[in-house]
User: Fold this.
Amino acid sequence: MHEWSLVQSLLSRVEEEARKHGAVAVRRLEVSIGELAGVEPALFDSAYELFRTDTLCSNARLEIRYVPARWVCGQCGARVAEGAALWCTGCDGPARLAAGDGIVLERIELEVP
Ligand SMILES: [Zn+2]
Assistant:
């Protein structure tokens, strides 16, 4: 499953970060998942439950923030409504995706002795 490999690489990134700071454990993780990232937050969450055992994240709470897709005009920056044609109604510029297409590790809370 797609989510499994994402969670595994997330965990190894977090572990790397934790070791760099001399942490003994991770307390909390905050991840944002974009609407168009192609990831099911529920699956991501259950994959995390599965893989965090025996890692520094074994007691870390995972918080997932769902980020809706947001389109803006590439020319004037105006918001382009979702569901409408992906063109700016003000200046006819092409819309570009401003948010909602990625998975971002927003925050790690470490336990440092
Ligand atoms: Zn525009």
